[in-house]
Write the structure tokens for this entry.
Amino acid sequence: MSVHDFWTPFSAGPFVNSLLIGLTLGAIWLLAALGLTIIYGTMGVINMAHGEFIMVGAYFTFMMQSMAGIPWLLCLPLAFIGVAILGWIVERLLIRYLYHRPLDTLLATWGVSLILVQGVRLIFGGEPQYVEVQPAALRESASIAFVHIPWLRIFILGATLALAAGTWAILYKTVYGVRVRAVMQNKEMAASFGINAQNVYGMTFAYGAGLAGVAGAMFGGLKTVFPDMGLGYIVEAFLVVVTGGGHLFGSIYSSAILGELNSVFSYFTNTTFARFVLFVLIVVFLRFFPQGLFPEAKARR
Amino acid sequence: MNRTGGNLYHNSTAQWLAYIALFGLLAIIPVVGAEPFQLRTFAGYAVFAMLAVSVSMVWGFGGILSLGQGIPYGLAAYCMGATMQMQFQTPDEPIPSFMLTNELEELPGVWKPFWHTHIGLILALGVPTLIMTVFGILMFQARLAGAFVAIMTLAMLNAFYSMAQDLQPFTAGFNGISPPNAFKAFGVEVDPYSPMMYWLALGVLAVVTFASKYMLQSKFGTIVQASRDDAERVRFLGYSVAYYQVVVFVFGGLIASLAGIVWVMIQQYVSPTALETPFSIYMVVWAAVGGRHSLFGAIVAAIVLNYLQTELADISETWQKAWLLILGGIFVAVVLLLPRGLAGAFEYLIGWIPFGGRSAKPAARPEAG
Amino acid sequence: MGIILELKDLTKAYDTYTVVDHLNLQVNEGELRCLIGPNGAGKTTTMDLITGRQKTTGGQVIFDGRNITGLKEHMIVRRGIGRKFQVPAVFKDLTVRENLEVAFNRNPDPFANMLMMFRRTDKARFDEIVDLIGLGERLGERAGYLSHGETQWLEIGMVLTQNPRLLLMDEPTAGMTEQETHKTSQIFNRLRGSHTLVVVEHDMTFVREIADVISVLHMGKLLAQGTMAEVENDPKVREVYLGAEGISDAT
């Protein structure tokens, strides 16, 4: 690549294709960020181990596939449960002691992330593993005119929307969801109504971790599964959460916008420079709008 | 400057003596007889110690958690790499080999200033400082704090990492720049395996540490620490807190830049790994374990933890992997149980030694009726 | 002695309600003004608006003849307005001495302060303030170890080091014992004349001891103003405060 190849001339077909890819990229980021949104939005916890929860989900899927021959689609809910349990344990043993110390939560979860990465490395070694996406049709790409998108990414888009909708339903349509939102608004007041905030937090963290697990099961099929793969998701996931303002709809919008922007920039330059531009834009945006796209009108305590 | 009157830990003279003892001990290592390969590794520890000091200054004293100290470190490292590379090139062969591989026909304009070593060094300090200044102003003028700053520094670090990997013609991308010769200062090559290099690294560490200590003991340092505790109060005493935060942030960046320069002198190699996320967070781990409120603690922790890592890696690969896991566990334990790090534990223990004045106890006053 | 502080139609309004509603107030130099009113009357917000901690949505703050509306906090402080907060704000990890050192603000520039160790020329003023607030014995202690009353006095001392012409005090006696309250009123009486004080308070005994003029706020507006006697007997005040009993029994 020479310096002069930096800019790609515009042409309609490939551009539209990249817009569609951008949507799927947004979906990936949203899926990665979904659990984090719930955890951060509800508990104000910054979980730096979220990328590793995704990674564990991917390895879990790999294990189930290679050792028990479980079909990929079935691995998805199993990964959810598996990583949710892991999340529950982490919350019980660590997070609950750090609620009033947000920066320390950030650091401590990074420690957890280290432990998980190295633990996985010790058990599985550092070489990449492969998760086989089934049925075979999903390994192909959809090709219509200039549109050329892998079916797996379309599947992820659909799954993400389903999970986002499901999460919304849980938060707004169930008793548990009401409790979560009550605790989110005002922990003390919720407690005075008999809501066990501790349990709510534990379940919420587990749920967020479970979402990361499902994400990992799907992402494992995208490329390969390796111990450091979480790193590739954590920063984007956080930026989605923070840009969106810390709640569900915010993350949906911000992931779509960021995914599209990334694609558009990538089209004109190339992937890594696009990332640089995108990150700088986000930093500038956050400086002027630290509350994100949709600031929550927080009740005065 | 006796703080609480009863604790030797806080006694100014005792502290300076401890530092002198530490640096004295470290300085005689080459004399006591260490192999050249070991010397080179130890010189590297001095670099890590500098990075831990930079984190301690900015975080422990300034209250700013930066997960991106790798930014000034990496940028300075690349400038140094370019400087050293151009020391190797001649007017007949002006283009580094990796650029030829990338089909460049002439030396890019950005690289041209690095023909001159002194300009290269100035850029190595100046470019990161400029970027950190702009970045700092951007964040602190907007009164961003805490986790926000942490995430933003992380994002910027990742952005620069991407750039370093991607701009292959300029940065040699993934492979990195490997200047074939050691750094030449005033016509003399500084051999990375020599005691000279070791003392140079140690010397820079000492200068950086004492400059930081001095700053902390000045009124500037008091104001910065006050801002960490209650930024609003400081504002209401007439100080522009944003200004102070930018200065501390940039100073920390300067220390990290020096570390980057020394590192490339030692390693004769720079690659995007200098801008890797885990590395920048390790710096925070060292400072946290040592005690972020203590420069001394940060230095000792950086040296000891890296020493352990090297030694264990020599034993077996399993131990190498296990060590990082243990380090993660130590980090979690420190954050949870020992927020002031090992230095804090030490402070507590030293407090039991009877020394001077009254021991520090909370005022026993009758409660308001 | 002229008017040192003037609030003209000062307003802070949100979408749904208005905290400070076209407030007009004038304070004379050297006066000790007490600002009272039921909770939610807008007293603390008014202080926030004056000191730049919150942005106004209307009106002006005129200090010493100059419009300071919209200036940043530290700029307003440098103009000569000092503020003591409701919840005592001192630096708990620093010693009493260091707290006062930080407050001594000859030159706020960071680089100048790198070269500065505490100057002896400030010593006289330092001693004066330490004497006034009575913390001479406690200089070497961590501020976090002080009792509640001592913390309040330390903060007052810190605000005083800057020699502000106008001092805003937000509930300075909150949480104090009777003796501590009395000592605080002695401090304030010594300050009166050379400084202008505006004090937000709930403790009427304290107000009685110190106030020259009392302004009563209600729903963001000025309800009544005058001496203790005048305000006590004002029917509007009686109605708003505690029914017919008025403010005399309020503590």
